[in-house]
Amino acid sequence: MAKHKTPLLDELESGPWPSFVSDVKQEAEVRAKNEKGVEYQIPVEVCEDLLGVLELSYNDGETHWKHGGIVGVFGYGGGVIGRYCDQPEMFPGVAHFHTVRVAQPTAKYYTTEFLNKIIDIWDMRGSGLTNMHGSTGDIVFLGTTTPQLEEVFYELTHDADVDLGGSGSNLRTPAACLGMSRCEYACYDAQALCYDMTMEFQDELHRPAFPYKFKFKFDACPNSCVCALARSDFSVVGIWKDEIRIDQEAVAAYVGGEFKPNAGAHSGRDWGAFDIQKEVVDLCPGKCIKYADGKLEINDKECMHCMHCINTMPRALMIGNDRGASILCGAKAPILDGPQLSSLLVPFIKVEEPFDEIKEVVENIWDWWMEEGKNRERLGETMRRMGFQKLLEVTGIKADPRHVQEPRHNPYIFWKAEDVDGPWERDVNEYRKRHQR
Amino acid sequence: MPIDMDSAKEEIMAFLEKKTGAKSKFYFNDFTKLFPDAKGREVKKVLTALVKEEKVEYWSSGSTTMYGMTGAGKQGGAEHED
Q: I need a labelling partner for B17 at 20 to 30 A (CA). Which of A26, A147, A178, A304 fits?
């Protein structure tokens, strides 16, 4: 028998989709039976009370959570987000219901042993409820009490060898795609860079000093599996700058129907015979592909690296050999000025250990943003407010046609005297010889 | 110009003690204004040291973090953390 009646929440279970309500009820049942004999350190009825407070909020049309607080683990300014219920007598199990963010292993590879370990910690010291994964990528533990925070932290770091993630005005837990571990399109080792940057910037991750959050994300190719340029302040996207490699025999095999396009994806219905003109050539945004007399040609100078042709014919086309990454800055979700995608800052950079060049770009950006950024202002907003030209100046990067986002949108570029060859002094008398007053 | 750790700590604590009452939580930028010639990262080191000494504590909403004098403001009492 449920502790609280939840007719409104029960409605959420009636649809065809999986419901978090069913999951919470299942966990409530497991905790009540406690067949594993877990020594629960927070109230057993935490899940029941979570459902209760949610039902109350649905009835009242307002939240009963108080968000934020001073709670955390000693020395860390992030990783824990305080949450309290404003009806603690009615729902004692969720009087404290703090969130703990746990850094995900890069590219989210983990063993079942690791998962069992962290879930054992959380079953005993928290609600047992998790969010796999939060938007930033962290493993999110939902709901524990203040006295358990240090215990959870100790066991995570000592037994599971994993750290807390970022929250607040910190560097957030960096995220990378699978990269070279599984993907032949990887233009650089995204996991190596992600791990290195995570270790290098530990202080920024755990001790907040930024105007607001700051996110790194690493995509090893422009397919952007972690969607870096839409989701991070500092996006590193793999790219090549030479030619796409073409295997003409394999192209012929695609045209002849021997190989399935898109590696056999979209095979749920019959799309008819593969039409290279319609499905590849005509869809190229750079209009740089030609297929004639059984030969595929690409004018690589016009290639926009959209990956469409490569994705469609992966056995025939491969990324180039001169590989590195582009760095883009300033993506963010709404709040001020609406959502924003990243803007290209570094068109091409080699990605090689110890990654000093990339770190230098980051540090220059931080020095500027920490000084000029307003409170709660994302980097993308500072860039809009102060101009992209300012970002170029502080990072010491020369303006490049590829920085132009919208041609003719704003034709005024303010050059400084030292940027342009003079002479700046003129002889007025000489001038008047050629120009009447 | 590098800042002297001990005098910077005193200055920050004096700032917090003076303000407490009207306001108990401050953005990082409020502290950098106290040291206009110093880099933000130097100020951060001072604040980190004060956190270690338990004189200053973080307050986080989850998206933004602020600093305050340990125990100052309503937060501690309201959250039954005392």
A: A147
Query: Cβ separation of A376 and B64 shorter than 8 Å?
Result: yes
Q: Are residues A344 and A361 in the same domain?
A: yes
Give the predicted TM-score (pTM) of the model.
0.90
The dihedral built from the CA positions of residue B9, B10, B14 and B15, taken in this order, carries a sign that is negative
- The answer to whether A212 contacts B63, with C-beta atoms less than 8 Å apart, is yes
Question: By C-alpha distance, which of A386, A420, A384 is closest to A405?
Answer: A384
Domain that holds residue A231: 175-240+323-419
Selecting from A66, A208, A374 the residue whose C-beta is nearest the C-beta of B58 gives: A208
List CB contacts (< 8 A) between B75 and chain A: 69-70
- Which stretches does DSSP call E strand in A301-436? 317-318, 323-329, 343-349
Residue A55, in any domain of the structure: yes
| pLDDT tens per residue, range B21-75 | 778 899 999 999 999 988 888 999 999 999 999 999 999 998 899 999 998 776 6
Asked if residue A332 belongs to a domain, the reply is: yes
Whether residue A228 is found in the same domain as residue A254: no
Class of the CATH domain delimited by B5-71: mainly alpha
- Is the four-CA dihedral A360, A365, A366, A370 of positive or negative sign? positive
Residues A87 and A229 in one domain: no
Q: Residue B47: list chain A partners with CB under 8 A.
A: 209
Q: Which residue has the tokens 């422009």?
A: A222
pLDDT in tens, A223-264: 999 999 999 999 999 999 999 999 999 999 999 999 999 999
Give which of B60, B70, B82 to mutate to test A binding, by max A Cβ within 10 Å.
B60
User: CB under 8 Å to A316, separation ≥6 — which residues?
Assistant: A246, A247, A248, A250, A251, A253, A254, A259, A296
Number of domains in chain A: 3
Taking an 8 Å cut-off on Cβ atoms, the answer to whether A212 and B28 are in contact is no
ipTM value:
0.87
B48, B60, B80 ranked by CB distance to A168: nearest: B60
Find the closest chain B residue to A77 by CA distance. Answer: B58
